[in-house]
Specification:
Largest sheet: 7 strands, parallel
Structural class: alpha/beta
Strand content: 5-15%
Protein name: SDR family NAD(P)-dependent oxidoreductase
CATH class: Alpha Beta
Number of domains: 1
Oligomer: single chain
Organism: Thiothrix lacustris
Shape: globular
Helix content: 25-40%
InterPro entries: NAD(P)-bd_dom_sf, SDR_fam
Number of strands: 7
Keywords: Oxidoreductase
Family: Belongs to the short-chain dehydrogenases/reductases (SDR) family.
CATH architecture: 3-Layer(aba) Sandwich
Length: about 260
């Protein structure tokens, strides 16, 4: 059943009139998810600190004839709770709604044993990969709860391994965070669909940076891995919530049936 999600293709305009916020949308998996959501009708709010790359992704979406996205430059390492509440208010004012939250942004700076871990680096890693997601999610919850079909999806990655340090701790913390959020919002009166997806390694700049000995072309492209995220962000997922979907490493030449 899980493997079938990699082949999922939404119906035309399945995400029409949905507003979806995607973090880390300028490049890599976030870019692929943002473009795929837009392909099926969603209006994307692209949150990223890399403005030039985000602008390039914006141009690609507009030039493809998809709904015009919105850019929201923000560095999740230094953003405060107020910054996220300001973001939520801006979405309310400009978009009038928020139907989906795609937590994709991540940062892995180094592989280091815990006995040698720099405390300042630890704090930064926890901030970007865990605490910032908490701040963003709680700021957006009121908007999501106003949606007829709200969804939160987290791009997880199995990282409770030696030398993953703060990144591994943050990823595990986010899995627990999503479990708690799903349990607190599974009743019909306050329902929010909350799921995590781990599609295995993807051909991204962060992957290349942290695995310099690996041939990048031996890893699947992000565009081939977007289907499970689209499923859980859209109405086809129904009331499926609290799931942790994990896939193994996909072939380097993998293709998604929805790619044009």
């Amino acid at each position: 059943m899980q493997q079938d999600l990699l082949a999922y293709v939404p119906s035309e305009n399945a995400l029409k009139e949905r507003v979806i916020l995607v973090t880390g949308a300028a490049a890599g998996l976030g870019k692929a998810i943002a473009k795929a959501c837009a392909q099926y009708g969603a209006t994307i709010v692209m949150l990223d600190k890399e403005v030039r790359r985000a602008e390039a992704t914006y141009d690609e979406i507009v030039n493809a004839g998809y709904p015009e996205p919105a850019l929201y430059p923000l560095d999740m390492q230094g953003a405060t709770a107020k910054d996220y509440y300001d973001l939520a208010e801006t979405i309310r004012e400009k978009m009038g709604r928020l139907d989906g939250l795609m937590l994709n942004a991540a940062w892995l700076s180094t592989f280091t044993p815990l006995s040698h871990y720099d405390t300042e680096l630890w704090s930064k890693m926890i901030m970007v990969n865990l605490h910032a997601n908490f701040l963003l999610t709680t700021a957006c919850l009121p908007l999501l709860q106003e949606s007829a079909d709200p969804a939160l999806v987290y791009a997880s990655h199995e990282s409770n391994k030696a030398f993953y340090g703060a990144f591994g701790v943050a990823k595990a913390g986010m899995e627990a965070f999503c479990d708690i959020l799903a349990a607190e919002h599974e009743d019909p009166a306050h329902f929010i669909r909350v799921n995590t997806v781990d599609t295995g390694p993807a051909r991204t700049s962060m992957r290349t940076l942290n695995f310099p000995g690996e041939n990048p072309n031996s890893v699947a492209r992000p565009e081939a891995l977007v289907a499970p995220y689209l499923f859980f962000l859209g109405a086809d997922a129904g009331k499926r919530t609290g799931e942790h979907v994990v896939f193994g490493r996909q072939p380097a030449d993998a293709q998604w049936a929805g790619e044009m």
